[in-house]
Amino acid sequence: MTLLLSVLFAFSSLITSVLTPSLSFMSEMENSSDKIEIVIESNDQMRFNLSEITVKQGQTVVLTLKHMGKLPKAAMGHNWVLLQPDTDLATFAMKAMKARDNEYVPAEAPEVVVNTILLGGGEETTIEFEAPAPGTYSFICSFPGHYALMQGTFIVE
Ligand SMILES: [Cu+2]
């Protein structure tokens, strides 16, 4: 079955590459498998609009965080912090709270896989990173008091 599918796939790829100009074929491949673009919104009600994000191992993740609110960073700052599987969120949030000088991301934190800068209302930022090893990760906003409402699951398949 698997062999048949691969043969079929190879055949259809061949047809596609014959029929499609090679440049657009390549960019199609990039969007569908090598690269995934994610947009996550946050707001003045202290919420993300996504609670689960799924990517594939080795994919280049291009993640844009948008702050759709109006409140300034000092009052309603939001970031997106990806944490290693099994991180205790309450413990990490406590540590993050003390890292005010580093926008609430502890400088030496093995729990942090990757993070964005801290945004105020109306701002947005984009980060690009390689999807880590397969597993179930957590993401939070590490601004003091936000993680309880602003958290979600990041799955790498
Ligand atoms: Cu926040």
Describe this structure in a few short sentences.
This protein is α/β, with parallel strands linked by helices and 157 residues long. 28% of the residues lie in helices and 29% in strands.
What keyword list fits this structure?
157 residues; alpha/beta; Immunoglobulin-like; 5-stranded mixed beta sheet; 3-stranded mixed beta sheet; 4 helices; 8 strands; binds copper (II) ion
**Strand segment count:** 8
- The helical percent reads 25-40%
- Integer count of domains: 1
Low-confidence stretches: 1-31
How far do the termini sit from each other? 22 Å
Taking strands numbered 1, 2, ... along the chain, how are they ordered across the largest sheet? Answer: 2-8-7-4-5
Q: Kindly state the mean pLDDT as a whole number?
A: 86
Shape: globular
Structural class: alpha/beta
What radius of gyration results from the CA coordinates?
A: 19 Å
Largest sheet descriptor? 5 strands, mixed
Order of helices and strands: HHEEEHEHEEEE
Number of helices: 4
Overall CATH class: Mainly Beta
Looking at the overall shape, the CATH architecture is Sandwich
CATH topology: Immunoglobulin-like
Give the ligands present: copper (II) ion
Describe the protein's topology:
Elements (H helix, E strand, L loop, with lengths): L1 H18 L2 H13 E8 L9 E4 L4 E8 L5 H4 L4 E3 L5 H9 L14 E4 L8 E7 L4 E6 L10 E6 L1
Parallel strand pairs: 1-3, 2-8
Antiparallel strand pairs: 3-6, 4-5, 4-7, 7-8
The chain binds copper (II) ion.
Copper (II) ion binds next to loops.
Describe the structure.
By secondary structure, the chain is α/β, with parallel strands linked by helices. It has a single domain, classed as Immunoglobulin-like, CATH 2.60.40. The protein is built from four helices and eight strands. The protein has helices at 2-19, 22-34, 73-76, 89-97, and strands spanning 35-42, 52-55, 60-67, 81-83, 112-115, 124-130, 135-140, 151-156. The strands form two sheets. The chain has a five-stranded mixed sheet, with no helix packed on it. It has a three-stranded mixed sheet with strand order 1-3-6. The chain is globular and about 40 Å long. The chain starts with a helix and ends with a strand. The model is unreliable at 1-31 (pLDDT under 50). The protein binds copper (II) ion. Residues 77-78, 141, 143, 146, 150 line the site of copper (II) ion.
